[in-house]
Structure formats: structure tokens, C-alpha cells
Amino acid sequence: ALSVKCDVQKDDLSILNFTVKGVEDPELIIKSYGYPAETHKITTEDGYILVLHRIPRGIKGVKKKTPILIMHGLGSSSGDFINMGPDNSLGYILADNGYDVWIGNARGNSYSNSHLYINPNLNPEKFYNFSWHEIGTIDIPAKIDYILKVTNQSKLYYIGHSQGGTIFFVMTSVKPQYNDKIRLASLMAPAGFVSNVPDPVIKLMSGYIDEIEYILEFFQIYHIPYLDVIRSFLQNICKYDNYYALCKEIFNIFGGGYNDEAQFNKSIFTKLFATTPSDASRKQFVHYFQEVKSGKFQRFDYGPGKNLRTYGALNPLKYNLTAVTAPVALYYARNDRYIGVKDVEKIASKLSHVVNNYLVPHEKFNHGGFLFASDIRPLVYNELMRVMKFY
To answer: What is the rounded CA–CA span in Å between residue 218 and residue 215?
Structure first.
């Protein structure tokens, strides 16, 4: 139950009359801070058109010409790595430290919502028929190959947040040849095993995931609906001081936020909701709920009949984490409602080359803190870059 007091003033009635806007262009956001920016598009083998936003160099420091691919979490986008500005957003910090920064967008999100043959508005059932398995086995390898070709490099750094960790594990276990293309994978709040998720609502819902999926299918909901309306409404309402408590609770509930007021600046809302939340398929969410329920890290569970036709077995195939041989650094938090400490420790025990196992030294640090905390740089990013220098 959530109880938030909001004093509606007469002047606040504009919250009911706002203009619906699309997401802001990350290239324009980057350039507004004085950094060079590029937008690249690639097409996957199954026809999805994916967008990469690039910061080829910083505005200070020495250019090392070493490429980095950054991948976002569920319901997120490249915007979350640039919208907090040069002092706090990872994209600028890495660029100023000399790296060639490429920030990816998974298929189906607000920037990668095109296909060669399928219109997502006319045929959403077919367009959004993917989970994070396809993102890991098709999208990320395509991005890596493209970046290495453009930069004339043989290896790159990989940084992932939440689902960004999931798809790395999927890629390197299903396509182990890509381990050789990774200098170092730095994974923040990585989602692999998720059965120990601290959030009680997720725990509860996972027990009824089959029924929930049936309802969503009945109402033909294949992705997150009304995103432009949601973003525009949040941008509009969160500019009022009277609604600060409500906006903070929305952020904490749906963004895995943090509760430490010293880390939380209400000025982030207008920046945050310009790009967030981003779109994702229903199947991505369902796949995670299946993992919570089963306690396994495995492919999508279609039920015995379709599993047999798809995998040649009654149960989904498990991801072979022993095949992940690239160096991996893990960063996680004790107060993260979405990624439990026990689950990260379980992932670490399965990997052969963990080079850093870093629990953030702040008791209240949470899932969203890896992107938006005001002290993220000293708490996480400095350590992340320190380890990168060894590779």
C-alpha cells in the first residue's frame, strides 16, 4: 500500500492539460553539453534496426581510441547513461577518460523500434515476440562486430546495467567465441539468477506468472503501453514541488530507486523522464518472472509441448555459465530491491574469471543508484575505471 500526500493547488491544474511528447534525442542531449555525438544504425540478421549513440571523444583528457559498449537494463535506454550531465553520467565520464563510448539500445526500446518488414504499430504481436535471449544472442553480437569493424579494433570493453548483465551472460554462454572479443565486462547490478529478489511484489507476482501472461494475451498487451503519455505526464507533474513525494515514490517503486535523501536530488526528474521509461516487450518481463519462480537461469519456458518443439526437450535449456571465460567485474548493492546479494554471489560462484567482486560501500545504495545517485562517481565509477585500467 502506498500513501502519498499531494496538495493540489489551483495553479497545478495544468497537470491535466499537457502536451504528449516523444523521447528526447540522446545525440542532441550529448551535444548540448558540448560533447561530440554520433548516431549509428545497424540491422540484425532477423531484421531489427538498432540504434547506437556514440561519444567518440571527451572534451578533456587524452583519447585512447579504446571502444566501450554500454548496455542498459529493462525498460531503459541509452538516455540513462547521458541524461544526468558530465559530472554524473557514465558516458561523459568515460569519454573524458579517453575512451570511445558506444551506448546501445536493445530491440524494441524507444530508440530501436523499427524493423525492415514488421510495423510495430500494425503488428505488435510479431514485432515484440522476443525476450532478452534474442537481445543476447543476436543484438549484442551484431553491435560488437559493428563497433570493432568501425574502430578497427579486435576487442572492446563491455559495461552492462541489470539486463545489460543478463544479455552478456546469454551471449558468452551461447556464443562463447565472443569471450575473445571482450577486454573486460563490468556488470552493475547484473541479473542472472533472480530467485532471491528482495522485492515482495515481484516474488508474489512470479507465482502467478502464467495467469498474468494469459490476461495480458487476452488484452493483446505485447509491450509497455502509453509510454509517451506516461513520460510526458511525469515530466509535467514532477516540476511542481507539491508532487515531489509522489514522484520520488514512483521512481523508487518502478526504477529501483534509493532511499537516502543525500543521494537524491529532485532536479533529476525533468532530465530523467525525458528519456525514461523506455519500451520493452512483455516477453522480457515474463522471462524474468519465470526465473524468479524456477530459481534457474535458462531460456524462455513455453510449456512442455512448445519446449519440445523449440529445444528438443520438455524443459528449457539452461545457460552454461562455465562457458563465460572473459574477465568479469561485478558491482552490486545491499539495498537493491531487484537484484539480491545472494543471487550475485551465486553468479560469481559459477564464473571462472571474476576479477572484481564489489559490494557498494553504502547501506542504502539501490538499483537506480548505479545510474542516478549524486555520489555514484566515488562510490562506483572510480572503482570501475580503476579495474578497467588493468585490461
So the answer is: 5
Amino acid identity for residue 308 in this structure: L
* Spatial CA neighbour of 73 closest among 358, 259, 276, 347: 276
Residues linked to residue 332 through DSSP beta bridges, in sequence order: 359
Dihedral sign (CA 150, 152, 158, 164): positive
Residues 6+ apart with CB under 8 A from 231: 21, 23, 273, 274, 275, 276, 277
**Distance from C-alpha of 236 to C-alpha of 20, rounded to nearest angstrom:** 10
Tens digit of pLDDT for each residue in 143-154?
999 999 999 999
Q: Hunting for cell 509517451 — which residue is that?
A: 228
Name every residue whose Cβ is closer than 8 Å to that of residue 250 and which is 6 or more positions away in sequence: 234
pTM of the entire predicted model = 0.93
Residue 232: other Cβ atoms inside 10 A? 18
What does the block give as the cell for 207?
Answer: 507465482
Catalytic residues: 162, 336, 367
Beta partners for 223?
281
Backbone angles phi, psi at 34, to 5 degrees: 90, 10
Using alpha carbons, list the distances in angstroms from residue 322 to 4, 171, 174, 329.
Answer: 47, 13, 11, 16
Helices (H), 152-226: 163-174, 200-206, 209-218
Over the chain, what is the mean pLDDT?
A: 91
The most distant pair of C-alpha atoms in the chain lies apart, rounded to whole Å, by: 63
Is residue 223 within 8 Å of 118, Cβ to Cβ?
no
Give the residue among 65, 256, 27 at the shortest CA–CA distance from 157: 65
